Amino acid sequence: MLDFKIDEAKCTQCGLCSKECPTLIIDGKNGIPAIKEGKEKNCIRCQHCLAICPTGALSIFGKNPEDSIPVTSQIPSSDDMERLILTRRSVRKFKQEEVKTETIEQLLKSASHAPTGHNKNQVLLSLTHTREEMDKVRNIVYDAIKKANEKAPLEGSLSMYAAIQKMWETKGIDLIFRDAPHLIIATAPEKNSNGVADCVISLSYFELLANTMGIGTLWNGFLKAVMEQIATELKAAFGIPDDHRIGYIMVYGLPAVKYARSIQSDGLNLNEIKL
């Protein structure tokens, strides 16, 4: 059920909701808007109708328009956004202190607004909140690498993980997690063809807001490789459903290093389409 409701006292019958509906299931030509008969199944759950209503007269899926954030001119300027993007750095040195729980919840809220293919909203974020939890994850991962290498020596591109594990065991040098206090793993169902992209977009939203708060992030391909190629049992250990694929992984925390300027990009690989 869409639970599509109109507050007739607020509705101006402007028709914006019906015009904006991507699947054209809202009839707004004859007064108060309504869902066309038999068309509910075509809704893609985008909530554009709720977002565009200028008077907050429309509710769908039980959402109260008063709980939405109004769009005002108080958004970052293009210069501010560009500066944020250009000065973002991958952080590999973190302070020991934890990020406050309320800050993590705020970051997760931003990630929940990331777009997903067909608005399926199937991204699962598995995360740690405390350094104690993170330490347990760290130990489990390094132990899993050691056991896998003892069972059958890691070869080829995976052989370096045996050396990384040994460095942790003998010297306490953490090359996989970089001593970060927090971890977040984005996964989605294997059957979702957009799942990996959805995961990466979700973490990108998380990361950009984190950087505005002075929180450093690192996209963690090392752990992704371990979980996918060396110790697949880690998914179950972390409570990740068996039918989920890892989109990407990120560690984060308060950075122990401060960069003075942006890098200078070598540019993009571009293909100008000429037909």
Question: Can you tag this structure with a few keywords?
Answer:
NADH Oxidase; four-stranded antiparallel β-sheet; two-stranded antiparallel ribbon; 275 residues; elongated; single chain; alpha+beta; Alpha-Beta Plaits
User: Which ranges are low-confidence, i.e. pLDDT below 50, for 5 or more consecutive residues?
Assistant: none
Stated plainly, the CATH topology of the largest domain is called NADH Oxidase
**Into how many domains do the coordinates divide?**
2
Number of helices: 9
Given helix and strand content, the structural type is: alpha+beta
Strand segment tally: 8
Strand content: 5-15%
Q: Which descriptor suits the 3D outline?
A: elongated
Helix and strand pattern: EHEEHEHHEHHEHEHHE
**Span from first to last CA?**
45 Å
- Tell me about the largest β-sheet: 4 strands, antiparallel
Overall pLDDT metric: 95
Name the CATH superfamily classification of the largest domain. NADH Oxidase
What Rg, in angstroms, do the CA atoms define?
Answer: 23 Å
Major β-sheet strand ordering: 5-6-8-7
The CATH class of the largest domain, by name, is Alpha Beta
